[in-house]
Every structure is written in structure tokens, then in C-alpha cells.
## 1
Amino acid sequence: MTDYILSIDQGTSSTRAIVFDHSGSIVSTGQLEHEQIFPRAGWLEHDPNEIWNNTREVIGQALSKADITRHNIAAIGITNQRETTVVWDRTTGEPVYNAIVWQDTRTQSIVDRLADGDLDRYRESCGLPLATYFSGTKLAWILENVDGVRERADRGELMFGTTDTWVLWNLTGGVKGGVHVTDVTNASRTMFMDLKTLSWNESTLADFGVPASMLPEIRSSSEVYGTASASSLLRETPIAGILGDQQAATFGQAAFDRGETKNTYGTGNFLIFNTGEEIVRSKNGLLTTLGYQLGDAKPHYALEGSIAVTGSLVQWLRDNLGILSKSSDVEKLAKTVDDNGGVYFVPAFSGLFAPYWRSDARGALVGMTRFVNKGHIARAALEATAFQTREVLDAVNADSGVDLAELKVDGGMIANETLMQFQADILGVPVVRPVVAETTALGAAYAAGLAVGYWSGLDELRANWKEQKRWEPSMAPEERDRRIRLWKKAVTRTFDWIDDDTP
Ligand code: ADP
């Protein structure tokens, strides 16, 4: 009997395989971290072969922990770190270079060259500003800088993919007939896909110098792309869902309809707001992106607010200041004081992302007095996550004209109840935590299960979503306004820090 769906979550720090049952509960998990390769400051790479080997291994772990075989798996879904770029040879399967990870900033000069003074040149077509974050300039860098790659690409010998595509191609047989496909959500992070036509934009490709023959076929997020190859543990099992990680988390939160939203609190924060079938162009520093597309149905679009530093600020307190022994201790330390003691901590460590997009900003701790102790700093660090989220949500409200009624949350930081209460207070709307916190893997499982009829439709998935806990706002509106005003003032103190002669 095919009782389960297997989800592959190819993340930035690890790859996981999770087996889900019909109620959306986790049956078993396999997980392996991969090496973070830092060749220079600002560069970050992964070894694509290590990622593929780990994928095979974690599938084996998950199946054996659940004591099941491929016969019990109805379909496979894939979710992935987005934007991370792999190029490989279609006849040998060998990558021509390491994967260039989304956080890698080596392509700033390509960004500046293509922008020619206008970072929004491609926004009308793809919904994104020119930035090192997206796949486009990473692929251009590989074509321009790795020996022989330009010629091989022009001869049609190479393939490009984000890590969903790399895993799918290998899982479906690689050089022996692997399918070269991505889904609309991942394609929408390259800068090459036109939001309206959902096809590659030839004039953008020409500007970036990318031959169309390298690109995968763009398909929906929920359909059968192929079956696992004979040599895999899952042979003949259909692979039937692909969603980029943040879109998968949104789907796993059952935020299927226009106006629904989720916020993921991890290393950084990613808020996604479903705009239904409408493409909303942001005037307030958000990205326009694909939400999901189920088979032949019309796609759902989304606005996204990406915040670079949230959970990683807690890691910084732990690793760089040494005032915590583990991340979760931040709550205890923050609770040693009643409030932030007047301190605001703006973690503009790599500039500010949404909604400011200021690469000239750097971090600031303001409002310091002799009274301030490490408890206040811990509290200010947690509050920074809540204030940044508030600003992204204000941008969403301004762009969409819709005021949010509540916020569904997921990710590692939501274990922190002090933060969740403060978040509700600063938003003025309830914050809601679901029972299944592994929403990313669950979303990909949902997309795959829908395609093969394992689940009957969205209503059944909505019924799977269960609230675990809710925080109601309790701060007086005047007090909330006062604190937001101070936060905004603190943010202005981080601007214009980088000068032309800053090394
Ligand atoms: P990612 O998927 O981005 O790797 P996770 O969702 O696993 O991240 O969340 C990990 C992040 O959450 C880390 O940056 C860590 O510092 C932070 N974190 C974990 N537990 C807590 C906690 N109890 N309070 C605040 N932050 C936490």
C-alpha cells in the first residue's frame, strides 16, 4: 500500500528526507549537513556532488527509520534552498564548478555593470531588483570566469539548474535520461523568467550572455516530472512536486488564498504574502515572486519581504560575544530584565534588505547608557527581529491595500515565546504557531501528493493545519507606536556608514 509521501528538503546547511503520512504528520526523518566552502570573504560555495550523495543517503535513512520501502511511497516532493546555482556537463554529469550559494556576493561588479545606474531594469519582467542574491548573475559569473565554460555552453554541452533541478536530474537517471526541469517558483528567482508568460525572457538572457540551451524546462509546482531511476532506492516512484523553500513553507502553512501570509524565522526572516492570481508590483521594497502553480491551473503570485539577519544575530551573541552557550539560552537571558533598557540593536551586518535595500548601512547598537547590561542587549537583539518584521508587514499592507488579520509563523526562532509575544505586541495582530513546524518539507509533500491524488484537494490540506499556540497582542497602542518610532530612528543611524574609501 502506498501510505506515505517522501519530501526531499535540500537546504542551505543540510539536506533532509522526511516521510509524511496522510494527516501531514512526520513519520521519519533523515538528515546530513554538507560543507560550507568559503574560498574568500563574501564567497560561499557547496559541492554539488556532496549534495547529491547526501540526498541519496538521507532517503535511505528516512526509509529505514520508518521501516518502509519504495512500495509505501506514493510520490516524492522536492524543496530547496533557492537561487543557489549549479552548472554541469550533460554527458558526464560532472559540475563545471561548485554551486554558488544565494548568500554569495562575488557578483556585485556584474550587478553594477548590468544595472548601468538602474537596479530595477528587469523588475517589470521578473519582479526582482538586480542583486547578487538571485541566480542570474551567479550563472553569468560562471560563464565569464571558469575556463572553457563559455565555449562548452555555446556548444550546448552544459546544463544550468538550481538545486531542485540538480537533485531531480540525478534522481531521474542523470546522464541516462534525467529530466531537466524546474518549477515556476524556483525559475522566478533567476531573473530570467517573465512573470506573466512563465517562460524564459530572451532579451534578459541575451543581456546576461546565457544560452537558452542551458536552461531547464519550466513546469508547474505540482505534476509528475518523471520517476526515480532504476538505480535509486525509490525506483519508479513518481516525483510530483517542486517548490522553493519559502514558497513550500507557505504552502505547508496552507496559506493558499489571496491575503494569506506566513513568516519564517530562521537565519534570516522571509515573509510571503499570497496575492492570488494578481501580479502586484512592489513600491515599498518587496520582491514580486511566484507563490505556486498546481498543474494547468493559473499560478498564484506573492510579495516577499526578505530580512538578512534575525536568528543569525542570536548566533552572533553566542559565537562573537560569547554571552550565550546555545541559541535557545537567549530567552532566559532576555528575561533577566523587564525591557530593553532603552537599547535598540539594528543588525545591518551586511547592509539592510527589505524594505530598505541599503548596502551602505552597517549595524548599530543605540541608546546605550551605563545602566545597560547583557540582558538588555539580548532583549534588544530579539526585539530587532520583531521590529524588522513589522516594517516588512507595513510594506505588504501598503503594496496590497490589505491589513493582515493574523500572522502564521514557522522556523527555528518560533520556539522563543518571549519573542512571539513581543511580535504580537509590535504587530498589533495575533501570532499563530502550527503543530507541524516542518512546514517547508510539508509544503513540497503536499504539492507532490496533490499531483498523484494522495490528497484530494486544498480543502483536505486546510483541514490538516492545526494551531498549536496563539499569542494575542497586549501592548497599549501608544506604547507600541513609541517603540516603533524609536526603532525607525535607530535604523536611520545605520545609513551612509560605508564610504568610498571603506576597505
Ligand atoms: P535555517 O533554516 O535558516 O537554517 P532554522 O529555522 O533552523 O534556520 O533556525 C535557526 C535559527 O534560529 C538560528 O539562527 C538560531 O540562532 C535561531 N534560534 C534557535 N532557537 C532559538 C531560540 N530559542 N530563540 C531565538 N533564536 C533561536
Note: The first helix runs from residue 48 to 66.
## 2
Amino acid sequence: MQKKRILSGMRPSGRLHLGNYAGALENWVKLQEEYDCFYFVADWHALTTNPSAAFEVKENTVQMIIDWLSAGINPELPIFVQSSVKEHAELHLIFSMLITKERLERNPTLKEQIRDLNAETTIYGHLGYPVLQAADILIYKANLVPVGEDQAPHVEITREIARKFNQIYAPVFPEPETKLTTFARLPGLDGRKMGKSNNNFILISDPPEEIAKKVRMAVTDPQKVRKGDPGRPDVCNVFKYHQKFNPEEELQIRKDCESGVLGCVVCKQNCAQKIADFFAPFREKRVYYENHLDEIHDVLNEGTKKAKAVAQKTMDEVHKAMKMG
Ligand code: TRP
């Protein structure tokens, strides 16, 4: 039986942090065994909230791909950059006629982003973010889209656009489904969402000293002031990291924290060590790729060829269905 196709993308944010790893990358690595996976860098999407992001796209893309490969993404897969497959842009244009502005304004993810940006006006391309995402997904006829919860509304819009196209022109597109990442969000060091702009992150490429320094600053249970005080692991950010990167000791740490036997200083040292150990093989592979950047470019060139072949075939079908183009 033919494998189902998966497509997923990340905006080029440069080196990835633990939140990116637990929320997406780890899952991508697992999925490549079972599915026909396409993974890409959504560089046009990066411009929707900041057009000057263009200047950082190249370097951030290389750093991010190094992280993907270091984490075990198979370099033989179609790995590519959105802006090098221009067909996405044409399909985006065609799709932009198949959805209303009112529908796009109802998108909860957009509303949240606009609230965070604190701006009075909305960039046209930002409103159309999910329309471009629909083009990304449908041009490869993906069946499944592994994303976090915040992206589920975009997959829903993708399904609506696919239905609309199929109904008006001809049945070209499958209706893709969301494949939600199961692991709960890893909090940042301060308990907010881990993110570059929040300055509360640990990078998967951070050296052990840096990890130790950052974990030392992490917010634990505010009621546990000194060793001996009983702690509440369920409100502690460091405990979440233990659950993820040190599952063998989770129960013991919970017990010792709650009873007060375990203080935060020692607990954090242990946690930092476990995170550093977990990513040791990644750091080693990263050094290799940093010294073989030509391989990164080869992976992207080959990936682009594979992606383009599929995208062009879909666009032929689109043109035929529309009797134009
Ligand atoms: N919007 C996604 C994010 O912010 C990135 C993305 C762009 C994407 N196009 C996609 C994800 C297509 C999955 C499929 O994370």
C-alpha cells in the first residue's frame, strides 16, 4: 500500500529550542518511518509579521536545517525552502479567490497574533497567512499535517479551500487532516511559552555550561523557598523538563520534591545534566555539518528538485481543471 503523505513546515527561526524540539521536530523524526514526508522552511511566511525578516532568512534557514539533520531527519527526504518553489505563490494567488476576508478574520490564531503584536492595522499578507499555508499543503496533496494546536484552524481553512476548488473546477485536491502533536507544550524558563522573543529558551545546540546556567535561572515552585520546604512539581517548570528529558527519575523526583528532601539547586543541576546528555549526540552531528555546509546545500538542492517535480505536476492539473494558465 502506498504510504500516506505528510507535509510540515517551520518558519526559519534559526537554531531551534527545546520547545521546537518537543513540539515538532521530535515528532517529525518519528513520522518519517511510517509516512512519505516532505519538510520545508516557510520563509515567505516569516515575512507576514516582519518584512525585514527577509535579511535573516538565509542564515536562519541553514542553522535550522542543521538542527533538523542533527536531530535525525533523513537527508534523503524532500527538504526544501518555500521560496525556491515558486509554484506555491501561484497556487496561493488562485486560492485567494476562494475564501472571503470575513472567514480569514475569524481565524483565532490570527486574532491572538494581532493581540500580541499590539498593532492597530493588519498586514494583508498576514490575513492571508493560512491561504499560503493551504497552497503549501495542497500543492503536495498531503493527507496529514502534523502541527501544534495553534495551527489546527489553518488546516481547517485548507480543507475548506480544497473543497471549494474541487467543487468549482474539478476534484484535484484531497482534504488533509491535522495530526496533532501529542506532547504538551514545554514551558519556557519563566513559565511562559518558550520562544526566541521571550528570551526564556534553551537551544538544542547550547553547550552544557550554557544549559546549566539557564536551568539555574528557571522558575520553580514559588512557594518552595529553601530546601526542606515541600514543593509542588506540577507547577514547576524544571519538573516539566525532567518529565521530558529524564523520565526514569520522574517519580523519585516528584516524591523527594514533595517531601522536601530534594532542593531546587541539586534538582536543577541534575536536570541540566540530563538535558545536556540527551542532546550530546546532536551537538556532535552539528559540528560535523558546520564543517560540511556544502552538504546542507546539496540536501536543499536535491530536496527542491523533488518538491518542484510534485508541485509542477499538481499545477498542471490545476491549469487543466481551470481551463486556464
Ligand atoms: N504556520 C506554520 C507555523 O507557524 C508553518 C507552516 C507554513 C506550515 N506552512 C505550513 C506547517 C504547511 C504545516 C504545513 O508553524
Note: The pocket of tryptophan is lined by residues 7-11, 42, 45, 133, 136-137, 145, 147, 151 (CB under 6 Å).
